[in-house]
Amino acid sequence: MSLQHKNNYVISADIGGTHITAAVIDLEKKMIIEGTRTRVNVDSQGTATEILESWSAALIQAYEKSGSPVQRVGLAMPGPFDYQNGISLIKDLHKYEAIYGLNIKLYLSEVLGIEAADILFRNDAEAFLQGEVVAGAGTGFRKVIGITLGTGFGSALSVDGIVTDLSLGSRPHQDSIADDYFSTRWFLRRYHEITGLSATGVSGLILTSKHSAVVRSIFDEFTVNLSLFLKDIFLNEKPDTLVIGGNIAKASGMFLDELGNRLTSHFKGLKIKLAVLGEDAALMGAAASFDNGLRLDILPSADDILRRDLFIRY
């Protein structure tokens, strides 16, 4: 995959807890090249080799589908992560612990034959919100908070189109951190605590919702917890819009109306919107790291990230 010249194309990828989605983006036209979308399942609790080979396979497949030379890569990556140097700092989050401390940038550079300087990483929630602000649910609003509800709890803030990571998932909540309460594993754990039964995902719980008062009560509890948590955040940030994405947002019929009622009772005029671009939002946001001229010198260092994460957790 050795390439000789720069062009407008970027291989972009959104790395989730169970899969990676990749595609080739045309930065000049601000669009995904049709036919290049590639999805590969990933065992986030697998070995480092299994994880990295799944990621590189998706990137290579997207590239091969494009039919055009590409020599830049942008990745939307969950944190904590040293985005400047491309080193994973994820641990104690039940995912990707096998790649802790590994330099993903150098690995991908060697495998793909792309200069390390042409591989950029961006927080996944930040990339998601960037995409939604540019071409989705957040378009036209000055101050937007975006949250992603899935295998983790992602969050970002957009002010006049400038998007930054909020890292709300690491903030204290009840007896742990927010990530433990506003993610898929909380639903599965709570369902097991109440019923003694196991479920494979939130979608499985939804299928039983019409027949299960327990599932409805779990969503009610989730809604109360999330509204109280966001209330404290909104008192400081005062956003005009909240954009909600992630796989749990697909179950919005179970919580969105009540969440809206609770938040708008405190914040008059607040707009609450579901994300509209799906995975395309993070793909566009990751590629935009090049388009926006993302300055690596102002990104936090690994020490900064670890200090912040430890401070927030403890």
From TrEMBL:
Superkingdom assignment: Bacteria
Short name of any one Pfam family annotated for the protein: ROK
GO molecular function, one term: kinase activity
CDD domains (UniProt xref): ASKHA_ATPase_ROK
Protein name as catalogued: Glucokinase
Organism: Mucilaginibacter gossypiicola
Family: Belongs to the ROK (NagC/XylR) family.
Keyword Kinase: yes
UniProtKB keywords: Kinase, Transferase
InterPro entries linked to this entry: ATPase_NBD, ROK
